Every structure is written in C-alpha cells, then in structure tokens.
Amino acid sequence: MPPKTTYSVTDMASAVKDVLKKADTSLNIAKRYGIPTRTLRAHVKQAKNVGDSAVPPKRMGPRPTLPMSIEHDLVTWIADMERDGRAVGQTQILNKANAILARIQGKSASLTKGWFYRFMNRHPVLSRKQVRVGTATARRGAISSRHTQR
C-alpha cells in the first residue's frame, strides 16, 4: 500500500478551482499542490456534480449510530445531571442512549461499551471526574458502601 500523502483542505479547494478554471492540466495541478492525481480527479468530479468547488471532506468509516444532534442532546443531559449533583455512570448513559436509539430506529439495537468509549472521546467535556470529598455524590457513595458491608 503506498504511503498516505497529507494536504490541507484549502489546498484541495484551490486545486479543484484551478482544474475547473482550466488553469493547467490536472496532472500539473496535482503535482503543484501535492495531491494524488486520482484523489484530485474524484474531488473535481464531485464538485461538478454538486456545483461547488469547495466540497467538504467525507468522514471515513461506518455511519454514526446516533446522529450528532442527538449526541449533543445526550451530552447536555449528562452535564445537566452532573450540575444537579447526580453522577451519571456508564450504565446509565448506555441505557439512555439505547432508549433514544430504540425510539429513533424502532429496533432493539444496543450500543456497547465500545460506543461509550468512542462517545467519551468525541466529547472531551465529559471527561471522567473524580468524586470530591464532601459533595453530595461522595456522601451518597459513602452511605451506600456502609450499608452494603456486613
């Protein structure tokens, strides 16, 4: 497999504009901007179909299970719960996300721990927080652990 070349979105947009204006051959333009010829041709074809030379790059991989707008709503819900002093754990987040998914898609597909870890990486605002001593969450944790001991 050949090595991947790196180029910026602005270089790609400029190269596509140059090809569409027929400033030079696509081969020379690809060399000038450091973009693979086949990649440039694909972007030019897409720009001709869309009618815009600045085509946003597509995300590779499978489609997200939950739409980004729903994920943002889920992030807001988690932040609101934490702001109210109620800690939300992995199980609660997965249960809530699965309930939303069942409502959207109408099937009983379930999200897994893998989805949860990727979700947390996509939203660094929700980093794992340590419970501070003296907070309501810490007191609830202390009470529950005392009652479970025999």
TrEMBL record:
Coiled coil: none annotated. Pfam families: HTH_psq, HTH_Tnp_Tc5. Residues 58-129 form the HTH CENPB-type domain. InterPro entries: Homeodomain-like_sf, HTH_CenpB_DNA-bd_dom, HTH_Psq. Transmembrane segments: none annotated. This is HTH CENPB-type domain-containing protein. One of its GO terms (molecular function) is DNA binding. Keywords: DNA-binding, Nucleus.
